[in-house]
Amino acid sequence: MQQTSAQYFKALTVLCIALIMGVIMLGAIMVFVSTSTEMPHRMADQANVFGIVAFVMAGASLFAALTLYKSRMLAAKEMTSLADKLNAYRAAIILFYALLEGPALFSIIAFFVTGDRKILAVAAGDVLIMLAFIPSRQRLIKSLDLSSQEADIINDPEGVIE
């Protein structure tokens, strides 16, 4: 099935925004429930442990996400078909987001069980990084080191990806 550049970016952007919104919505719900009801934070004495674990998870996941993204982009650059390159880019972005989403969700749950709002900073940091990596035409062209002909297809909303 052929796809235009506009369709590709619309689908990829919707996916990325949905992943970000999932983290934001869970965080908002947990904050709301935690503050609007009398919560017996059973693990409040473990807040420091949960905070350290969340921070270490976030750092390790960010390192892994960036490393895997770069290695997948190197592999994608070697592909000959634009469609294959774009599929590899989409897979790399999904993996990148998934690796950041895990620690963000963990930190939200850790906040909920401990009541320590400082742990939410990890989730906020991951969301900011995810926002910074929302796919764009220019980022894709640069990441994949596309030829001028391929870049013209990407920059043309009606450009057909084959």
Walk me through this protein's architecture.
- The chain is built from 6 helices and 2 strands.
- A two-stranded antiparallel sheet has the order 1-2.
- The protein has one domain.
- 77% of the residues lie in helices and 2% in strands.
- It has 162 residues and is mostly helical.
- The model has no long low-confidence stretch (mean pLDDT 92).
Which secondary structure elements does this structure contain, and how are they paired or packed?
Blueprint: E1 3-4, H1 5-36, H2 47-77, H3 82-114, H4 120-132, H5 137-144, H6 148-155, E2 160-161
Antiparallel strand pairs: 1-2
Helix pairs in contact: 1-3, 1-4, 2-3, 3-4
Count of helical stretches: 6
Number of E-type strands: 2
Main sheet specs: 2 strands, antiparallel
Rg result: 19 Å
* H and E order: EHHHHHHE
The shape, in one word, is elongated
What separation lies between the terminal Cα atoms? 9 Å
Please give the share of residues in helix: over 70%
Strand order of the largest sheet: 1-2
Any idea how many domains?
1
Strand content range:
under 5%
What descriptive keywords fit this protein?
6 helices, single chain, two-stranded antiparallel ribbon, mainly alpha, 162 residues
Short description:
By secondary structure, the protein is an all-alpha fold. It has helices at residues 5-36, 47-77, 82-114, 120-132, 137-144, 148-155, and strands at 3-4, 160-161. It has one domain (3-28, 57-154).
